[in-house]
């Protein structure tokens, strides 16, 4: 969200109306929780919409890539080859965005630019998630 100016503008435009909506909250803590809840709600909805659009776009690019590859298999021309390369670069940029998300969620302290070992980061993300959950409330041998 912090990099998306459209979401920031939308949130900033709506904060004054939310302030008025929650002005009857007497406790500042409750007021703060209501405002942050509203911001989180709007941000999550916006992010899900953007993710849905991104998945749809990736699906379209994959279909174009398949079609262009079938055309090149039958008729190899310079124009077809150039169009295939353009579609491949567009696909790679979309795929790089997915990998960046995996790297961030895996909390990897290093990442070599250009490396596309997505499976490594998915496994690292899963391992970090399993280590972050609460296994028991009391230490072993204690109460």
What key attributes describe this structure?
143 residues; mainly alpha; 4 helices
Question: Any overview of this molecule?
Answer:
- The protein is mostly helical.
- Among the domains are: 1-54; 90-132, no CATH class.
- 76% of the residues lie in helices and 0% in strands.
- It has 4 helices and no strands.
- α1 (5-21) runs antiparallel to α2 and α2 packs antiparallel against α3 (78-106).
- It starts with a helix and ends in an 11-residue tail after the last helix.
Q: Which range does the strand content fall in?
A: under 5%
- Note the gap between the termini: 43 Å
Q: Count every helix, treating DSSP H or I runs of 4 or more residues as helices.
A: 4
Number of strands: 0
Radius of gyration: 23 Å
What low-confidence regions span 5 or more consecutive residues with pLDDT below 50?
none
Could you estimate the helical fraction of the residues in percent? over 70%
Characterize the largest beta sheet: strand count, sense, and whether it forms a barrel. none
What is the H-and-E element order? HHHH
């Amino acid at each position: 969200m912090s990099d998306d100016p459209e979401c920031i503008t939308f949130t900033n435009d709506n904060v004054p109306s939310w302030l008025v909506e929650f002005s009857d909250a007497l406790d500042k803590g409750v007021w703060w929780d209501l405002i942050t809840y509203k911001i989180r709600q709007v941000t999550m909805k916006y992010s899900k919409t953007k993710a849905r659009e991104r998945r749809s776009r990736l699906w379209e690019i994959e279909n174009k890539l398949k079609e262009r590859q079938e055309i090149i298999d039958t008729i190899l021309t310079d124009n077809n080859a150039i169009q295939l390369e353009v579609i491949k670069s567009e696909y790679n940029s979309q795929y790089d965005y997915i990998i960046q998300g995996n790297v961030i969620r895996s909390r990897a302290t290093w990442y070599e630019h250009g490396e596309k070992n997505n499976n490594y980061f998915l496994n690292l993300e899963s391992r970090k998630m399993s280590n972050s959950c609460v296994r028991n409330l009391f230490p072993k041998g204690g109460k």
